[in-house]
Write a structure and sequence with these properties.
The complex is a heterodimer of chains A (284) and B (365). With 284 residues, chain A is mainly α. Chain A has helices at 3-41, 47-50, 64-95, 100-113, 117-132, 137-162, 165-173, 178-189, 191-206, 210-213, 233-241, 246-277. Chain B has 365 residues and is mostly helical. Helices cover 72% and strands 1% of the residues of chain B. Chain B has helices at residues 2-6, 8-20, 33-38, 40-48, 52-98, 101-104, 118-149, 152-167, 170-196, 216-239, 244-252, 257-268, 270-286, 289-292, 312-319, 326-355; strands at 108-109, 114-115. In chain B, 45% of the residues are buried. Classes of the chains: A mainly alpha (284), B mainly alpha (365).
Chain lengths: 284, 365
């Protein structure tokens, strides 16, 4: 075999394998979605959204309290983590662009971004649950806020950096202070990008389970009290999936279906927002 | 320091108006904010004479806005510090009670209140190694396909699909692993592994035993499935930073596509690849839900990869709310502190490697 053919064979083999790898990835996504649809849609009814989690080994029931709890805690998490994240990102992009302090903060933020969520849960347990004396929805929301924050810091900074310096300079030349330039010029220009960051953060925290296990815990009943344990979809899925009861396992599948599609829709929505922001930057 | 920066625009506008005033000495360059800010009050008084109230109001707002953003940014540092301190504090009873034995003993017995971390640490490391070994080639392949092979109309949909896989929460992977993957492994794959790989001399003991379906190997596979999209997305971003000029030069010399990838793209993006891989490793080490479903929760170390085990995060997730004694809870937090140290060093090294690259090129990390 000539050297040339050999090289061609190697080339074909390697490229073929990379195609196979991609196929494997796509098949996995397909298999995952298919099994969620197949098992989740079996006996799917509006009860999922209108009824409470049932006692074990009975018929009927839904996930109303869990969906409500997840929505509430995600909302509070974003309401806390969002503004703080936006402000911190603003500092990194506008005030401390080249200072050593912001290099350190940027680095620490990147580390927090990939930190294991269970550790955040332990931290909030020590910080909030122990002093309060019991598990509570608010502690769950705080841990979600801590997980959402680094995502928002990162996207806010990146998006503010995309705003052309010349526009900011023009504002400055008009005599505007930096805060005015940021609020009236940079924020509007970066708005859809920042919104994307927020959506991605919502997608990230709405499926978080580990930190909620020992902060919000779970609740079989309807509760709107933020100082009490509150039901939430991920923990309900965890608990119901590992139970031996058929009706609980069915609800776990339905919950998994609801949460996955909610997150997929959010992520796609976030991409559409970015695409509208700037067609040249549609990736991500 | 930050305060001085905030004065620049003010100082500049002042300097401009100053220039018009005859006889006024002015700083030569606008870049050196030090000149400008040496006498901000004097500057203030002149400009303030025009519109005292408005300027003062603006300055105040500037101070408040600047201070608030700085405080928010500092909160990031405080958070990381707080996490470390609170974990150490919570873990202290366990560390002071067991001393170094906590790190060297395999025992985990809530009845006699004796705990050691070895079983959980072993499981964490082994599942992550399996996950990485399986995930690396696949994610490399996907990244190569996306950057070098796929026709442009395919790039975007496949790229988005891979990123969507990365967005699915880990509990779904664990859940799916338990109900879909584990039965398949138990009935089809593991018996085959036991009969072929188990018969190998030397490493055969890793693949013997009964096919439970759940266990260390299954956890590793689920981890791999979970981190593939993540590593693939980072690698794709890194590959896209390779200048076309370099690749075209290699093509010009007659290199095949694979040779261009292996000899130009890979060496050029080595740091980024390693950084991205280590980020994936950090994720695998700390992953909780994907593992908890399928690992089997056994604190002893089985010789076989098919036997059940546990990881640090799975142990915490399973036992934390049931920890009845103070020492038990503290031992679990001590495990958390170990995980903190392990993952944070891995992530920090990864981030340092990625730092060398253009940060904006890495949109997906």
């Amino acid at each position: 075999m000539s050297r040339r053919t050999f090289r061609k064979i190697i080339n074909g083999f390697a490229l073929g394998m990379s195609g196979v790898a991609t196929l494997v990835g796509l098949l996995l996504l397909g298999a995952l979605l298919w099994s969620l649809l197949k098992n989740g849609l079996a006996q799917f009814s509006l009860d999922v959204f209108t009824r409470m989690t049932p006692p074990p080994a009975t018929g009927g029931g839904g996930l109303l309290n869990a969906i409500y709890g997840s929505a509430i805690m995600t909302l509070i998490g974003i309401l806390i983590g969002g503004p703080v994240g936006v402000l911190a990102g603003t500092y990194l992009a506008e005030y401390g662009r080249n200072t050593r302090l912001s290099t350190v903060i940027r680095f620490v933020n990147d580390v927090l971004l990939s930190a294991p969520s269970i550790i955040i849960g332990l931290f909030v347990y020590e910080l909030v649950v122990v002093p309060m004396g019991n598990f509570s929805a608010i502690s769950g929301a705080i841990s979600l806020a801590i997980i959402a924050m680094p995502v928002i810091v990162r996207t806010t900074e990146d998006m503010l950096n995309l705003v052309p310096q010349s526009i900011k300079d023009a504002s400055t030349a008009m005599g505007a202070y930096p805060w005015r330039t940021t609020v009236s010029i940079a924020y509007p220009a970066a708005r859809s990008g920042m919104l994307t960051g927020l959506l991605l953060a919502v997608a990230r925290i709405s499926g978080e389970t580990a930190p909620l296990l020992f902060t919000a815990l779970n609740n079989q009943f309807w509760s709107t009290n933020l100082k009490e344990p509150m039901a939430n979809l991920p923990v309900v899925i965890f608990q119901f999936a590992l139970s031996p009861y058929a009706n609980w396992q069915r609800l776990a599948w339905q919950g998994a279906l609801v949460i996955t599609f909610a997150i997929l829709i959010l992520s796609i929505l976030a991409r559409i927002v970015v695409a509208r922001l700037n067609p040249a930057r549609v990736r991500k | 320091m930050g305060g001085r920066l905030s004065e620049i625009p003010f100082g500049m506008s002042y300097a401009v108006s100053h220039r018009g005033a005859p006889g006024a000495h002015e700083p030569k360059d606008n870049d050196g904010e030090q000149h400008e800010c040496q006498d901000p009050d004097a500057a203030m008084s002149r400009v303030a004479a025009i519109e005292p109230k408005r300027i003062a109001g603006q300055r105040l707002r500037e101070r408040i806005f600047h201070g608030t953003t700085l405080a928010a940014a500092l909160l990031v540092l405080v958070l990381l510090g707080g996490v470390g301190v609170s974990l150490l504090q919570g873990a202290w009873p366990a560390f002071s009670h067991f001393k170094l034995a906590f790190l060297t003993r395999q025992i985990w017995n809530p009845v006699t209140d004796e705990y050691g971390a070895v079983g959980a640490v072993y499981g964490t490391i082994v599942t992550s190694i399996i996950g990485m070994l399986l995930a690396l080639p696949v994610s490399f392949g996907i990244a190569v396909f996306l950057t070098e092979l796929a026709p442009s109309w395919l790039k975007r949909p496949i790229g988005v699909a891979i990123e969507l896989l990365a967005a699915i929460p880990s509990i779904i992977y664990g859940f799916w692993g338990l109900f879909v993957l584990a039965p398949v492994l138990q009935e089809h794959i593991e018996p085959w592994i036991i009969s072929t790989l188990g018969a190998l001399p030397g490493i055969g003991f890793l693949f013997r035993g009964a096919p439970f379906g759940i266990g260390v190997l299954t956890a590793g596979i689920v981890l791999a499935i979970m981190i593939v999209p993540f590593i693939a997305a980072v690698m794709r971003d890194v590959f896209e930073t390779v200048p076309d000029l370099l690749k075209e030069s290699a093509y010009g010399l007659g290199a095949t596509t694979w040779e261009v990838i292996w000899r130009v793209v890979v060496p050029y993006s080595r740091t980024g690849m390693v950084g991205g891989t280590m980020l994936g490793l950090g994720r695998a080490l700390g992953e909780t839900m994907a593992v908890t479903f399928v690992i089997g929760n056994a604190h002893h170390i089985g010789r076989s990869l098919l036997s059940p085990g546990t990881t640090i995060s799975a142990t915490i997730a399973n036992e934390f709310t049931e920890a009845t004694t103070k020492l038990y809870a503290s031992s679990l937090i001590a495990l958390g502190a170990l995980l903190f140290v392990i993952t944070f060093s891995v992530i920090a090294i990864a981030r340092l490697m990625l730092l060398r690259l253009n940060r904006r090129a890495l949109s997906s990390v």
